[in-house]
Amino acid sequence: MEHIKQVLQLLRANKLHDKPEKCLFTVQELPFLSYIISTSGFRMDSSKLQAILKCDCPENLKALQRFLGFTNYYRKFIKTFSAISRPLTKMTKKEWSESALCAFDCLKKCFASAPVLIQPDVSLSFTVEVEASEIGMAFHSYSLSLQIFIFSGLLQHIPTQYS
After folding, report:
1. Would you call 38 helix, strand, or coil by DSSP?
2. Strand (E) positions, the chain?
3. What burial letters (b/e) apply to 91-113, b meaning 16+ CB within 10 Å?
4. DSSP E strands: which ranges in 33-143?
5. Whole-prediction pTM value?
6. 4-55 pLDDT, tens digit each
């Protein structure tokens, strides 16, 4: 508790003030910006995850855009998110297709089994997996077989001309 007192004294010395009703101390989990941060890492907020899993198949463009925007916020938890969601992204310009329906179902299944991401310990070694194709790229970093970070993205029209 002494370090908490020191931090609060330092804040006050610099004319910064805390709001006790907004402060949490000695907790194992902390909700922050739709993530749950804990001693074991960070994960998706379960209420947001339930909203994704209960979501019905989008029936119009606005509903599809809402779903893609919402799931895009949590893309770092899903390996090859951009490749999985590509048929859905294409549907923002066209009519609904069977591949988009499969992508929608696949994305929901991926969210149901999303990992807890850990904070990196720079004293340990890292493993980085890199995947690339003509349409996209992805990388995943691990430490002690636990996922630290996931990134995936689609290549836009110009980079695909040169590959």
Report:
1. strand
2. 29-32, 35-38, 41-44, 127-132, 136-143, 146-154
3. beeeebeeebeebbeebbebbee
4. 35-38, 41-44, 127-132, 136-143
5. 0.63
6. 888 888 988 998 888 888 888 888 888 888 888 888 888 889 888 898 888 8
